[in-house]
Design brief:
The protein is α/β, with parallel strands linked by helices and 365 residues long. The protein folds into three domains: 62 residues, no CATH class; 253 residues, Glutamate synthase, alpha subunit, C-terminal domain (Pectate Lyase C-like, 3 Solenoid), CATH 2.160.20.60; 37 residues, no CATH class. It is 32% helix and 22% strand. Strands 1, 2, 3, 4, 5, 6, 7, 8, 9, 10 and 11 form an eleven-stranded mixed β-sheet that branches. β1, α6 and β2 form a beta-alpha-beta unit. The longest helix is centred in the last third of the chain and has 18 residues.
Length: 365
């Protein structure tokens, strides 16, 4: 960022500007001849885009009034921070049941930031703060939430649930008494777990598109997902107990997904460019997947999860393991060097030298 800032300063000096604000609206300083000479721009008229109207000298070209983001009216500022103060001040457990509506956005984020400010990235022990909500949550429910916080939602949620989740736990399930089939109905919106780095998520119902996009460490169980599931995922574990949309695992370079493919048509909806499809055969891995489903059943009272567990010997072989190709090569290389007697840094360096190209691709994504 310092290099970028320095280069920007140099370019500004060449143009005769000292501040960014001085440049706003100065279309007269743009050189468009080179761009307009490109064959794709032929015939395009940019005169209205670059038009500079004559206005009085006191008319501002940039923001003149600070934007009010309404943070003081947020649920965190009005209620959650005070409610969670025993945990934030003395590490005491906090339990509460609260209503929520779709105008309540980024619920838990400000409280989570305060937790991190006081206790650092280690956070607090699991479930120190447990908040149970009833209703429809707005965007970014539980975003960036750290370890020690658990948000349970009895209802549904908008987009970006668990965005940037950083160690916390999110549980969503339908209202008690609802008659719809959860795995056939969307209960959370699009882009859940976007860029999340750690924690857990359990969703009794279907998630929208791009579930787990850029997931970098969260362990999640969901009962169905829309298009582009696990897109650009780099780490973590995702278990899907039902159908997926098209283009699953596009750009997925790390982590592992397990999809229950009862019908047998999942390969048609998976993007094979960077992943391979395998059977779930390793005993330890089978137990790990079962344990995740067991936790899902306990947290959400999912009938689908309970039925899968009852018929586990029959259902386990129907799980498809989605494994990134380069990620698999790195894991195998690391295992081989460890078996050769190396450990710690030596094993990492040996694996890097053996498969530097794969590591570069995994790290780059």
């Amino acid at each position: 960022m310092r290099f970028i800032a320095q280069e920007v300063r140099e370019l500004m000096a060449q143009l005769g500007f000292r501040t960014i604000l001085e440049m706003v609206g100065r279309v007269d300083r743009l050189d468009v001849k080179k761009a307009l000479g490109h064959y794709k721009a032929r015939g395009l008229d940019f005169s209205k885009v670059f038009y500079q109207p004559k206005v009085a000298a006191d008319v501002g070209r940039s923001r003149q009034i600070d934007q009010n983001h309404g943070l003081e009216q947020s649920l965190d500022k009005q209620l959650l921070l005070k409610l969670c103060e025993p945990a934030l001040a003395r590490r005491e457990k906090v339990r509460a049941t609260l209503p929520i509506s779709n105008t309540n956005r980024v619920v838990g984020t400000i409280t989570g930031s305060e937790l991190t400010r006081r206790f650092g990235p280690e956070g607090l022990p699991e479930d120190t703060i447990k908040l149970h909500f009833k209703g429809s949550a707005g965007q970014s429910f539980g975003a960036f939430m750290p370890k020690g916080m658990t948000l349970t939602l009895q209802g549904d949620a908008n987009d970006y649930v668990g965005k940037g989740l950083s160690g916390g736990k999110i549980i969503v399930y339908p209202p008690v008494g609802s008659t719809f089939v959860p795995e056939e109905n969307i209960i959370i919106g699009n882009v859940a777990l976007y860029g999340a780095t750690g924690g857990e998520m359990y969703i009794r119902g279907m998630a929208g598109e791009r579930f787990g996009v850029r997931n970098s460490g969260v362990r999640a169980v969901v009962e169905a997902v829309g298009d582009h599931g696990c897109e650009y995922m780099t780490a973590g574990r995702v278990v899907v107990l039902g159908s997926t949309g098209r283009n699953f695992a596009a750009g997925m370079s790390g982590g592992v997904a397990y999809v229950l493919d009862v019908i047998g048509d999942f390969p048609k909806r998976c993007n094979p460019a960077m992943v391979g499809l395998e059977k779930l055969e390793d005993p330890e891995e089978i137990q790990e997947v079962r344990a995740m489903i067991q936790r899902h059943a306990e947290y959400t009272a999912s009938e689908r999860a309970r039925n899968i567990l009852k018929l586990w010997d029959e259902m386990a072989p129907k799980f498809v393991k989605v494994m990134p190709k380069d990620y698999k090569r790195v894991i195998e290389a690391t295992r081989r060097v460890k078996e050769a007697g190396l450990s710690g840094e030596e094993a990492v360096m040996a694996a890097f030298e053996e498969n530097a190209h794969s590591l570069a691709r995994v790290g780059g994504n």
